[in-house]
Design goal:
It is built from 16 helices and 14 strands. It is of the alpha/beta class. Helix 6 runs parallel beside helix 8. The structure holds iron/sulfur cluster (SF4) (2 copies).
Length: 380
């Protein structure tokens, strides 16, 4: 295992993410504690010293189980990270109560790393409020030694990330973001990395293999990659890509079984970052992959003024593309909550006036119809 320096500590290059622990009976709230115990033992034997969890993982049971299993080891033999559930606006008024509950559940007196969970467009205004500092309570806990290092995780776009940093950048010691070779351009991850660099904030990476999506990529791409590293697996390429980014201090992987864990530990035995040429090849593959799997909306906005219901069409397509790439239906419903009533994709009347002006010839009405069908299914 290689290590990276952070302040006065040495963190293992790979951290154990505890949001996808092995489960029983297909129920994500029932963690297979026997297997999780073996995995945590293997992590510590292999040199992994960073364990990341959160209030909401596994229906609240990740904190409980990880705390219980780590209790079997000396407190100073690992670094523990958890998060305040700031993705839920209704919990902002309950910070002290939740923080105490977390310490109790995890059976510890302090957290080494504590994060505001998922700063994003929906909660940014709760954080950035000129009348009060939302984080005062956590600053106090840091002064009391109950939080060693304070940071945040973000799914925010560049502008919201900037707003958060303008308000709290001086106090944030690290930031956890989704980063991988596919999102570097597609999700503008590069710009976010540059912004964090300006604030001298080191990066913790989540979703290095994009929720497993990059763990197996089409054979045509693997063939190209094998010319450079004949034995490297698709996940290994993801990790080697991140190792080439100097701001990346911690790479988290949410491992669900021993095989994944053993494989990842093998990769992190050494730092073997991609060369410039290898990185360019990954970007070339990313471009091709995105072109083949998403709609080519350029966000020119020619269509929006033609929509009788003022649907923010490029915004809808951006989320739709994201869901298509991840094979889920998560971003679109989240984005729909932000749109005003009467202006949601489900309000599309199928007039197709938008399509008449779209230079990319996107069948926008079909996108809206597909979304309507999925929403209906989800609501059943
Ligand atoms: S087809 Fe739908 S999205 Fe396009 S202009 Fe008409 S109502 Fe708006
Ligand atoms: S006109 Fe087409 S390319 Fe332009 S924003 Fe609308 S959907 Fe996207």
């Amino acid at each position: 295992m290689y290590y990276n320096g952070f302040k006065d500590v040495k963190l293992s290059g790979l951290g154990m993410g505890n949001m996808r622990l092995p489960i029983l009976e297909g129920d994500s709230s029932k963690i297979d504690e026997d297997l999780a115990r073996k995995m945590i033992a293997y992590c510590l034997e292999s040199g992994i010293n960073y364990f990341d969890t959160a209030y909401g993982y596994h229906g609240g049971n990740s904190e409980r189980v990880v705390g219980k299993l780590l209790k079997e080891y000396p407190r100073d033999s690992f670094y523990l990270a958890t998060k305040f559930p700031s993705y839920d606006a209704s919990l902002f008024s309950r910070m002290p109560e939740i923080f105490e509950e977390q310490l109790e559940k995890m059976q510890v007196d302090y957290f080494d790393f504590y994060l505001m969970h998922n700063v994003n467009r929906l909660n940014i205004n709760l954080f950035v409020n000129p009348e009060r500092n939302a984080l005062d309570y956590f600053y106090e806990q840091k002064e009391n030694g109950r939080i060693r290092h304070l940071g945040f995780s973000a799914h925010a776009d560049y502008d919201d990330l900037k707003k958060y940093l303008e308000a709290y950048g001086d106090h944030m010691e690290f930031c956890q973001i989704q980063l991988n070779w596919l999102d570097w351009d597609f999700q503008n991850a590069k710009k976010r990395v540059e912004l964090l660099k300006e604030y001298h904030i080191p990066i913790w990476v989540m979703e290095p293999v994009r929720g497993g999506k990059l763990a197996s990529i089409p054979e045509e791409y693997m063939e190209k990659l094998r010319k450079y590293r004949p034995d490297a697996t698709a996940p290994e390429w993801c990790f080697r890509f991140l190792q080439a980014i100097p701001e990346v201090t911690m790479i988290l992987s949410g491992m669900s079984n021993m095989e994944q864990l053993e494989e990842n530990v093998k990769t992190f035995a050494s730092k073997e970052p991609v060369s410039d040429e290898e990185r360019d090849l990954l970007f070339e593959i990313a471009r091709d992959f995105v072109n083949k799997n998403t709609l080519p909306c350029t966000a020119c906005r020619y269509c929006t003024s033609y929509c009788p219901n003022n649907i923010d069409i490029p915004e809808v397509i951006a989320s739709y593309n994201e869901d298509k790439l991840s094979g889920s239906f998560f971003r679109v419903p989240m984005m729909m909550r932000r749109l005003p009533d009467g202006c949601k994709p489900t309000d599309c009347v199928g007039c197709r006036s938008c399509e008449e002006v779209c230079p990319q010839e996107i069948k926008i009405s079909e996108v809206m119809a597909d979304i309507m069908e999925r929403v209906e299914k989800q609501n059943k």
